[in-house]
Amino acid sequence: MKLFAVLATLSLVAASANEAFVSPLGGNILRAQRTASQPQRTPLVEECQTVLMGALPGTDADEARSACEEGAKMAPLVSAMALGLMSAIAPQAAFAAGDPELGEIIFSGNCAACHAGGNNVVQAEKTLKKEALETYGVNTVDKVIYQVTNGKNAMPAFGGRLSEEDIQDVAAYVIDQATGDKW
């Protein structure tokens, strides 16, 4: 039962005061609000108790509340551990801002004149291929965003022409192409 309580509490802790979410245990839309002054009497614990009692019929209310209070104490630690693990094992592209598919469209209309196929018609050695991006220190989404926004040498700045979102999409596309050896 404590495992269910921790899972229910994690679901509830993840919600902010005004956000609705779907509980993985109950499937209902729940709202939670944490109150620092009375952690044992928060709607968080009450919602957890309701979910727990619904998921495990015949559960005593006091036992469910106790399990949820324990789960509430453990939830921040478990959440932090899960987030740390995800960030350690997930590829950079999973956290990158931007949509590579939209970036391809924007790239085709704004960048392909000089960078078709990941090449560079102005300075042949400065391609968008992985090795060149690494050599010139432009091998992350953030660095590509900076370069596209501000320009450098013969490359014009696109910060005034494209939205921030468009630039993020282009950067995601360039890094996706380069790291996947798709150029």
Features:
single chain, 183 residues, mainly alpha, Cytochrome Bc1 Complex, Chain D, domain 2, 2 domains, two-stranded antiparallel ribbon, 2 strands, elongated
Total DSSP E strands? 2
Helix content: 55-70%
- Largest β sheet strand count, sense and barrel closure: 2 strands, antiparallel
CA radius of gyration is 24 Å
Tally of helical segments: 9
Give the strand content.
under 5%
How many domains, as an integer? 2
Determine the structural class based on helices, strands and strand pairing.
Answer: mainly alpha
Overall mean confidence score, pLDDT: 75
**Shape summary:** elongated
Strand order across the largest sheet: 1-2
Terminal-residue CA separation: 52 Å
Element pattern in H and E = HEEHHHHHHHH
What are the low-pLDDT stretches, counting only 5+ consecutive residues below 50?
13-41
Description:
By secondary structure, the chain is an all-alpha fold. It contains 9 helices and 2 strands, in the order αββαααααααα. It has helices at residues 2-13, 43-55, 61-89, 92-95, 100-110, 112-115, 130-135, 141-150, 164-179, and strands spanning 21-22, 29-30. The model is unreliable at 13-41 (pLDDT under 50).
How would you summarize what this structure contains?
The chain is mostly helical and 183 residues long.
